Amino acid sequence: MKKYKTLSLITIALLLAALSAAAGPKFAEEPGIPEGKALIYIYFPPSYYPTQVAATVMANQQPVTTLKAGNYYPYITAPGSIDFWSSQSSESSVHYNYHVILDAEAGREYFLHLGADMFALMLQVVPRDRALQEITTCCLPDPPDG
Fold first, then answer.
1. What is the pTM for the complete model shown?
2. Whole-angstrom Cα distance, residue 140 to residue 100?
3. How far is CA 1 from CA 5, 9, 12, 14, 108, in A?
4. CA–CA separation, 93 and 77 (whole Å)
5. Is 20 contained in some domain?
6. Are 19 and 12 in contact (CB under 8 A)?
7. Which of 26, 29, 30, 52 gives a 20 to 30 Å CA spacing to 107?
């Protein structure tokens, strides 16, 4: 029995090492906001939601980034009304989920939380203090292959 317990612990350690090696850099605040732009941190904090689920976030019908649980992305954009949508990809289909409209002002930062409810992913603008508690465990997504 002890042999199997040791083997299980080694397997778990190797899996955790592989998962952490695949992650990009941990969250770091951007050094500043370019003049005339807004900064929107889009993040998908790790949770019970499976990490193999990918969610593409779109702004005004244009793809911005694809995130898995535990990822974040700093989105620098022109100010104005931005309609954010998330779409969840699985092997068999794509599901379009909740959206949020953000009136972004130049020189300001915003935090857009991507999370799960019972049936789908949802987007929500959250206050900075809450976001900083959640986003610090997130990493940049790995660059796409190619």
1. 0.77
2. 22
3. 6, 13, 17, 20, 58
4. 29
5. no
6. no
7. 26
